[in-house]
Amino acid sequence: MPDVQPSLSPQPAARRGLGIGLGRDTMVASICGFVVALMVGASFAAVPFYNWFCRTTGFNGTTQVAGVAPSSAPLARTVAVRFDSNINGLPWRFEPEQREIEVAIGKVVTVYYSVTNTSKHATTGQAAYNVTPLTVGSYFTKINCFCFTEQTLAAGETREMPVVFYVDPSFAADSENDTVKNITLSYTFYPVREPAPKPVASTEPNPRKGNL
Questions:
Q1: 126 near 189, Cβ under 8 Å?
Q2: What share of the chain in percent tops pLDDT 90?
Q3: For 152-179, b where at least 16 C-beta lie within 10 A, e where not — what string?
Q4: Could you tell me which residues come within 8 angstroms of residue 69 by beta carbon, excluding any fewer than 6 positions away?
Q5: Which residue spans belong to the Periplasmic compartment (predicted)?
Q6: CB burial of residue 137 (10 Å; 0-12, 13-18, 19+)
Q7: Whole-model pTM above 0.70?
Q8: How far apart are CA 186 and CA 127, in angstroms?
């Protein structure tokens, strides 16, 4: 009689190898998903973290913010502060009232910028800013500045906008600033495509209520 070969079935070791392979694939996929989720979360956190870092350290010429004037008296040492103005993508005319002033270190100073909407319709912009030399950012302190809010100008409107600032007295104590004679404060206005809605006063009806 011819020999009958017994049917071969998967060996237990092969099944174990298949299971191990599937388990490894599942683990790798889980790790990849976690990394992607972590990167997405980091991308959303990057901008606020960068802004906080710049404000804290003065990195990249970012100025500091204070609510009050310094408690000490101004120093005898002065520094020239120049004011720069730029427009990017807006139909505005934007310029400082003074191009340069001499400032006593530690003295609170108020200067004004003028901006005019030269178009025939309302437009909204917001200013970015920095100071140079970039290392001076941690000493240049603003008390009030138009750059912190969106600016909406009607057609043909002109607005005077103040900047209240001082150069911190610790600027003079840093030997790296011994050769710094000039500081430039620079603003650039960019368009705001979707301005933040203004709150409706309590005495005014909300025009959207009837449409909801």
A1: yes
A2: 50
A3: bbeeeeebebebebbbbbebbeeeebee
A4: 108, 143, 166
A5: 47-212
A6: buried
A7: no
A8: 10
